[in-house]
């Protein structure tokens, strides 16, 4: 990947000591204003994003953002304020506004900082910061290279919806009146492409992308374009199928969504509102006994890695599902108090939630499936977390005799999330690590596929 000696600098982030000084200032002013406890976060980030279509620059943006957030607690009252200005005057104004809001809110005994004894005593070095000194010119050239590879990959590629390159570096600092204060530098870069294939009057589009903390771990830009083209061409001639109940194989990029629905159903907010089909489900078997779903927050360079959560609580490896049984919920301090439990260190979300993978690759999963539907794209929002009902539009491929036979579109797959999770037959070795949920393709025993 090309780089330039004239590349834009990503060293214009402020020093961690300056952000920590501002957080300390906010906390001191909160105490002086009468807050019992307080927390503050300051972040700064810089980046570049480019999108090219038909070889021409469609968009080119330089990003430079600064933000401050302050939350104060007056007894059981809570107030929050934010600002994009990091001057000392803006910090003072934000604290004053937060305190004013708190004085006008009703008391809630669940409000407050996470317990002091749960704060991270040490923050592990997770190798999350790898700035990419890429100039705008080189980013444009890289995007053009990606798009050109897609166009040249197959004569049936008629067009593209563009190729993009993104570069991001940031520094965030969090502190609270327990004495916790830490700064974390992070980076995140990506390349993407959307290809449009056509044959006769039929047209199909598909995409591919790569994302990583370090530019050296990104897929080659040409390969990203080629994969986008391959996926689009493979969908040409797609048709619907007859309605029946068959096994369904969720490819890894969409299988992540199934695990995401499970996480959403065991989040504290959904549970204390009684708005989840998994209320009071601790200790229940939700998946087959051979499956394990574990949070691994300390994976070096992991996209979901973090040494502490959004409240300063130390993170650690912890199973969500073990032997198929739900071991815990996904809680921050507030939702934990509402439920009479303890925080699980998940303020801000999960960190590298990993479903145990099997040894079978995609071909092995297809052979095990025999006959059914491979899902590569999902559409619509037909997931009801209150009831667990699941119904979404889908596209993919029809399988007969353990091999893909033809592309499929305009179908709906339906079932219940309990049935889907409990009916998992295999998890593939093709683990997709491009996010904070990491899983291979998931084979489910049976769902209703509604087509013609």
TrEMBL record:
Residues 243-451 form the Metalloprotease TldD/E C-terminal domain. InterPro entries: Metalloprtase-TldD/E_C, Metalloprtase-TldD/E_cen_dom, Metalloprtase-TldD/E_N, PmbA, TldD/PmbA_N, TldD/PmbA_sf. Pfam families: PmbA_TldD_1st (PF01523), PmbA_TldD_2nd (PF19290), PmbA_TldD_3rd (PF19289). One of its GO terms (molecular function) is metallopeptidase activity. The keyword Hydrolase applies. Keywords: Hydrolase, Metalloprotease, Protease. Transmembrane segments: none annotated. Residues 38-100 form the Metalloprotease TldD/E N-terminal domain. The keyword Manganese does not apply. Residues 129-236 form the Metalloprotease TldD/E central domain. Belongs to the peptidase U62 family. This is Metalloprotease PmbA. It comes from Halorhodospira neutriphila. The lineage of its organism: Bacteria, Pseudomonadati, Pseudomonadota, Gammaproteobacteria, Chromatiales.
